[in-house]
Amino acid sequence: MAGGIFSLLGNCSELEKANCHPLVCLLCHEPYQHPCLLDCYHNFCASCLRGRASDGRLRCPLCGHPSVVRGGTGLPPVDRLLQFLVDSSADSEEDVQCANCDRCCTKAELDTMYFCNTCGQPLCASCREETHRARMFARHEIVSLSKRTKDIHKKCPLHEEPYIMFSTEKKSMLCINCFRDMQGESRAHCIDIETAYMQGCQRLDQAVMAVKELQTSTREAIVLLKAMIEEVRNSASEEEAAINSLFSRMQEQLSERKKTLLKAVQSQHEEKEKAFKEQLAHLASLLPTLQVHLVTCSAFLSSANKAEFLDLGYQLMERLQRIVKLPHRLRPAQTSKV
After folding, report:
1. Using an 8 Å Cβ cutoff, are 200 and 244 in contact?
2. Neighbour tally for 276: CB within 10 Å
3. C-beta separation of 258 from 247 below 8 A
4. In angstroms, how far is CA 14 from the centroid of its own chain?
5. How far apart are CA 36 and CA 200, in angstroms?
6. Which CA distances in Å does 251 have to 51, 149, 246, 248, 264?
7. Which domains does the chain have, with CATH numbers?
8. pLDDT in tens, 313-325
9. Are 94 and 113 in contact (CB under 8 A)?
10. Are 324 and 211 in contact (CB under 8 A)?
11. Beta carbons of 135 and 122 less than 8 angstroms apart
12. What is the DSSP string of 47-67?
């Protein structure tokens, strides 16, 4: 599907028009299939990148940044966070049937559906009120359908016991047996699931704020660079007009001098415009990354339950922090004066 789409998106207008939906590949413009994460934090389908690596490196089709790829596949690792959102999106499109009354709910009614994590079954609003409020269901964990706990996050795969703790040191959930097997000093870093979830939300908020600040600075820098490119063009036009006016009044012997000056102006114009465009292209390629990750954070927060958040939230936080720390050239390196 994307075999012929691999040239760098160097044109700024192309980047601005690019589809920045967090679940759609920028190459094939289709929902992600096995999304791979490059070192520059751009995502593409595995099929769109397959066969493109050379000497253990893969150049990003969007910004050109090389990524190191290991293993025989020649592909970057699958982005677990984005795959989670893709899977969650697919789940939301499935038909849902109440386990109690067998009533099928339309997509418009999904927001009013509930899910009993204890029973592992969906409930409509009526059955949640009429049946699951009985005393025998008092200890059941009932959440909105979008926050349901998937089977892989209910129990420890090693001990088949429910998760009860979270290690802030290893960033992983623990069952009672995992906790007992830990060294004493490591136990000091364990907190309950609820506390871990609250602390994780606070840290993710801080990481999101840093990305938003970088997004604002990037947009301001792009506006400035566009204005300076226009100033370079206007300055060059004004200078060319002044030179033409000057040389029109001079003797023929000055014509060679005229050509020399015009060439110098054009050379400066092209040099400055090229430098500004290169910086602009770099910043324009940064915006889709920032936008996608901000939308990804929002989608992740609205889709993930506590266990899913703790499984993937810290990975998301670390990624946002690394993006902000990457070197970004936000200020012009030279003036627009020709």
Report:
1. no
2. 23
3. yes
4. 19
5. 25
6. 63, 86, 10, 8, 21
7. 35-84 (no CATH), 94-151 (3.30.160), 204-325 (no CATH)
8. 899 899 899 989 9
9. no
10. yes
11. no
12. HHHTT--BTTEEE-TTT--EE
How far is residue 277's CA from residue 283's CA, in Å, rounded to a whole number? 10
One-letter identity of residue 262: L
Place of tokens 């204005």: 227
Pick from 14, 28, 69, 79: nearest CA to 296: 79
Pick from 236, 225, 244: nearest CA to 269: 236
What CA–CA distance (Å, rounded) separates 309 from 153?
A: 10
Encoded tokens for 288: 């889709």
pTM of whole model > 0.70?
A: no
Contact in structure between 58 and 18 (CB atoms under 8 Å): no
Coil, helix or strand at residue 149 = coil
Integer-rounded Cα Rg, in Å, for the chain is 28
Give the length of the chain.
338
Closest of 18, 38, 14, 17 to residue 26, by C-alpha: 18
Lowest average pLDDT, out of 69-83, 242-256, 291-305, 320-334, goes to 242-256
